[in-house]
Amino acid sequence: MKLKAIAIASALALAGSAWAATVRDEPIEPIQAAKVTNPAMVELGKKLFFDPRLSRSGFISCNSCHNLSMGGSDNLKTSIGDKWQQGPINSPTVLNSSLAVAQFWDGRAADLKEQAGGPIANPGEMAFTHDLAVGTLRSIPGYVAEFKSVFGSAAINIDKVTQAIAAFEETLVTPNSPFDAWLKGDDKALTDRELAGYGLFKESGCVACHNGPAMGGTSFQKMGLFEPYKTNNPAEGRSAVTGNDADRMNFKVPTLRNVELTYPYFHDGEAATLEEAVDVMGRLQLGRKYSEAEIADIVAFLKALTGDQPTFVMPLLPPSSNDTPKPNPWE
User: Fold this and answer.
1) Which of this chain's residues are annotated to bind heme c 2 (predicted)?
2) CATH of 178-303, one of 3.30.360.10, 2.130.10.150, 1.20.140.10, 1.10.760.10
3) pTM
4) 170 classed as catalytic
5) Annotated catalytic residue: which of 26, 29, 43, 125?
6) pLDDT for 295-318, tens place per residue?
């Protein structure tokens, strides 16, 4: 039995080495499929992600701004919050967000767990409080039973809520894009135009910021290196967190994975199309004016970054009880 286990381990190690040997030597690595270690917690987190009862109005859920049918974003310049408030910033995709160095454009949340609690208590977003959200969940027998099953205790608190949401969000990765297939050695996975776009993408220096598996999310960079970025959006970027004026207009580099789906672009949503985004980034960040043909090549490459979208059975949320607070979105 021991020899058999050693043989299996050796075979797996060889298979892993063979896979590593086939991956091309590039500044970008393939996205890996999610490894679920606690499916019950992921299922609970999925329910909480889709549950609008975590908002004051009873209408807004995490999925409202991070719509998993729309690339994990909402395709609006800035999101809609409580009482139809206009949000201050573009909603970044939740897809592959677990690969980022921090969360939010300014990086004010260290991880997905910390991020998950932010919108619930933000008066411009879900406009609840953590205490009220937890109280709502405690009034729903189905949730009490599920929290007990997952955590070993029926006690519900915001720490458990955000832990479960984060566990679900960690599964929202998008492997198997055409570009990933090419990275793994499939010479036919990309067209000549897509390959030309990738070559130009590298040669221009885009990979200095858009690297790693997520092609972004690992650093903060100033928006407007060669030309100032002109915007009416009040977001200050990283300086709002650090208090350092030198960090003004420094934002987390967004992932380019599934970028075809996550329009409009930039923190203010001012670039409506990929073509416009490539043109602006070339001029402002690289000091380069791309031709129409070059933009078309790069855009073709960027569209090859769309991977398998998350697929799952939509959750059936546990019903409210007579004690569950009744939402009044028209207050």
Assistant:
1) 206, 209-210, 281
2) 1.10.760.10
3) 0.92
4) no
5) 125
6) 999 999 999 999 999 999 999 999
